[in-house]
Amino acid sequence: MKLIIAIIRENQLDQVREALIAAGISRITVNHVSGHGRATSEEIYRGQKVVPNLMPNIRLEIAVNDDFVKQTCDAILHATEANKGGLIGSGKIFITPLEEVIRLRTGERGSDAI
User: Fold this and answer.
1) Per-residue confidence band for 102, with pLDDT thresholds at 50, 70 and 90
2) Closest Cα partner for 2 from 67, 96, 88, 75?
3) Is the pLDDT of residue 25 over 90?
4) DSSP string across 62-75
5) Domain map (residue ranges) of the chain
6) Nearest in space to 93 (alpha carbons), one of 15, 18, 23, 5
7) Which residues contact 42 (CB under 8 A, 6 or more apart)?
8) Torsions phi, psi of 84, nearest 5?
9) What local confidence, expressed as pLDDT, does residue 39 receive?
10) Residues 18-47, mean pLDDT to the nearest whole number
């Protein structure tokens, strides 16, 4: 089992969600987050360096069985292909191991709970 965390631009949420549904992934968690990475531009205002603003983004969390990791990542990558060409701030995908999942309603554990 893996936990896939994707940080994407706000305007890409609908296309990514549709791509995930088309790939058979229908259970996602969506959070509105703010942050910055390389997409920082140093500005000088009245002789002082200004701290870069935090950019609004979307964080998707998707728990999947090992068989679905590739198709989930491929769906996200395909839906965000419009950013090809080196656009800084396009986002990231993180894949981490998931030790245990428990479905609260039924008490199922592991892969069955996903």
Assistant:
1) very high
2) 96
3) yes
4) EEE-GGGHHHHHHH
5) 2-37+45-113
6) 5
7) 49, 50, 52
8) -60, 150
9) 58
10) 83
